[in-house]
Specification:
Blueprint: H1 2-28, H2 34-39, H3 45-55, H4 61-75, H5 88-123, H6 128-142, H7 145-159, H8 175-200, H9 204-211, H10 216-254, H11 259-268, H12 272-300, H13 302-315
Helix pairs in contact: 1-4, 1-12, 5-6, 5-8, 5-10, 6-8, 7-8, 7-10, 8-10, 9-10, 10-11, 10-12, 11-12, 12-13
């Protein structure tokens, strides 16, 4: 198992290098001038040229790329924000708790709802409950997050005045953002849970467990759900990564001071170091989450752990 972990960690290195190169290249060739946007339209060409020299923006592409990669890899330096003039990593770490809380709550509630509804939909296949759950899943997947967020604001904040429209000054401020994100999460998890459970409940060991007289709940949870968790966990892990990226729209609509709102403001202000740092940070989190998902597989499915133990024994 240790060999598998080390191998996965080593595979992360070329992936992260590729991500750094792609992100830097895309923003390097993006239209617009960050120095001009910071200094304003009243700045002269001499002022803009001097500011670009100060930031090293007049250097060749490969020089800037090498300097950026060196700072990121060896110094964990994501650059200095054009707007706040403080390190980007500092701005990100200040806003990370809000984004992490939003994504975690949406993943938790959406995952629980999706798994439960998926099990019910699989057990009651082709029934009214199956069709109702499928309709809810389709609505959650197809509905744009920003549209749902705006509709929630119009209904519950403007018309009914039950919930605050924006901010993060209490638990009430998190209800609508979590709902807008968790509905999509629930739809994706429901579809995968239903498909995985349909494959599991037809297996021989499920019929054997029922023939031994075990209760239906025990058969579904202990024998069925545990064997169906591998694809479900994979989807939930990938969805959590997408929730981190999707928080850009949700945090902007509800004015939550998180990483997503920070990235949106950086894009509008052409704050390229902040955009690069935010995207790279989210990408690194996704790579780490995928690694953790692979490690969880060994804890859930004993066959995976036994496979690597067998390889180690044979090689020894």
């Amino acid at each position: 198992m240790y060999r598998y972990v080390i191998k996965r960690i080593l595979l992360m290195i070329p992936v992260m290098i590729g991500i750094i190169v792609v992100i830097f290249t895309m923003l390097y060739f993006a239209p617009g001038d960050g120095a001009r946007s910071v200094l304003g339209t009243d700045a002269t060409e001499e002022m803009v040229r001097a500011y670009r020299d100060e930031l090293g923006l007049n250097d060749p592409y490969f020089v800037q790329l090498g300097r950026y990669m060196y700072n990121v890899v060896f110094r964990l330096d994501l650059g200095i924000s054009y707007r706040s003039r403080v390190p980007v990593i500092q701005d990100i770490m200040e806003r990370l708790p809000n984004t992490a809380l939003l994504a975690a709550l949406a993943c938790f509630f959406g995952g629980i709802l999706g798994v439960v509804a998926g099990i019910v939909s699989a057990v009651k296949q082709y029934s009214f409950w199956d069709r109702a759950c499928s309709a809810i899943a389709l609505f959650g997947i197809a509905t744009p997050t920003f549209w749902l967020a705006l509709m929630l604001v119009i209904v519950f904040s403007v018309n009914l005045r039950w919930l605050p429209a924006s901010g993060n000054y209490g638990w009430k401020y998190w209800i609508m953002p979590v709902i807008s994100l968790s509905l999509w999460e629930a739809g994706m998890t429901l579809r995968m849970s239903r498909s995985a459970m349909l494959d599991v409940i037809r297996q021989d060991y499920m019929r054997t467990a029922r023939a031994k007289g075990q209760k239906k709940f025990v058969v579904l949870t202990k024998h069925g759900l545990r064997n169906a968790l591998i694809p479900i966990i994979t989807v939930i892990g990938l969805e959590f990564c997408q929730l981190l990226a999707g928080a850009i729209v949700t945090e902007t609509v509800f004015a939550i001071p998180g990483i997503g709102k920070y990235c949106y403001d950086a894009i509008t202000m052409r704050d390229y170091p902040a955009v690069q740092g935010t995207v790279l940070f989210i990408a690194a989190l996704c790579v780490v989450i995928n690694l953790l998902m692979d490690l969880v597989y060994g804890l859930i499915d004993p066959r995976i752990k036994a496979m690597y133990q067998t390889k180690k024994t044979v090689s020894g």
